[in-house]
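Reply to thread "Modeling small-molecule complexes from scratch"

Following up on the discussion above, here's a worked example others can learn from. I took a protein sequence and the SMILES for S-adenosylmethionine and predicted the complex. Inputs first:
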Amino acid sequence: MSDTDLDPNELKMFSFKVWSYKMGEQVAMLVHLGDRLGLYQAMADKGPMTSQDVADATELHERFVREWLMGQAAAGLIDHPESGVFELSEIQAAVLAAEDTSINFSAGAFRGGFEPALLDAIADSFKTGIGITYQQQGRAAAAGLARMTGVRSRLELTSVILPGLDGVVAKLEAGARVLDIGCGAGVTLACIAEAYPNTTCVGYDPSANAIELARDEAAQKGLDNCEFVVAGAEDIPANADFDLVLCFDCLHDMPRPDKAATAIRRAIADDGTWLIKDIRSTGDFEKDKRNPLLALFYGFSVASCLQSAMSEPDGLGLGTLGLHPEVAENLVKDSGFSQIETHDFDDAANLYYEVRV
Ligand SMILES: C[S@@+](CC[C@H](N)C(=O)[O-])C[C@H]1O[C@@H](n2cnc3c(N)ncnc32)[C@H](O)[C@@H]1O
């Protein structure tokens, strides 16, 4: 079949759709550079600026800065009020520059593409059926992930999420034992250790890269009430004394979340709380298609979550959207928990499950 047999308008429209994803790839690279080079930060709260102003503020070369600015204006990510003048509005600054203060900060999620070796490994997984682990994704990926997921933990964990759970804050204030499984680079656990100095925190993750970052973070903050262990959920101690167990955006990444749940039942105190944060999905693809960012989540899955969930031959392979409410309920009930309450916490990407024995 040649193009002449096809409807020319449909062909043009579909071609445009495909190239718009290619444009997304290029704009994503520009956002990464803006974040990495401090360009957004240099423009925040500064009002209208010329390319020379931005170059001076960042000590970068004006010609490259000008091309970047025009690309950002073309993408609608910064304003361009008049010829040669650019401006980062308050809203743009919140999403692109304000990492410490805005729950909507997103620029940290832009990693600037994939290393060729990583892409080769992802392509190989389609042939072998065995995915790569988070450790195999490398240290930069672990650090990038922490910047993406860490914003909400830093800004809302102790002010919104933990106070929304039954009796947990009082225990943490008095001095409790907290276990964070799949803790990644430790941002969430460090927030708890910092806010509740009487509490003892332990983080587990099989990725040595992530645990190294977590230990660095704890050392930088001078936290002596948290420790980190390079090990998976299956290796947590079965001593039934943890008051709070966290699984943040990681159960769907585990090859055997069912074995993790059984291990958690043995590790948690009888009056303890298990808080699961996992990606919001319904379990029905047709309903999930209402999410305008759904393809983004499938991209995350093919590149990371499903990789990890299939990294062992007996992996259940849940993937990014696989831990929906029905799966969560079956998982916790099959492992000996009887109560599960779902929270929203106004988080567009995740649901939170408060689980008790
Ligand atoms: C998407 S990351 C989330 C990290 C962190 N909780 C956060 O919110 O940023 C998923 C984590 O699950 C970890 N993971 C994968 N398999 C695991 C297992 N069997 N036991 C514990 N953690 C696991 C990965 O190493 C990775 O750090």
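What I'd highlight from this example: Residues 134, 145-146, 149, 181-184, 188, 204-207, 210, 232-233, 248-250, 253-254, 308 surround S-adenosylmethionine (CB under 6 Å). The first strand starts at residue 79 and ends at 82. Questions welcome below.
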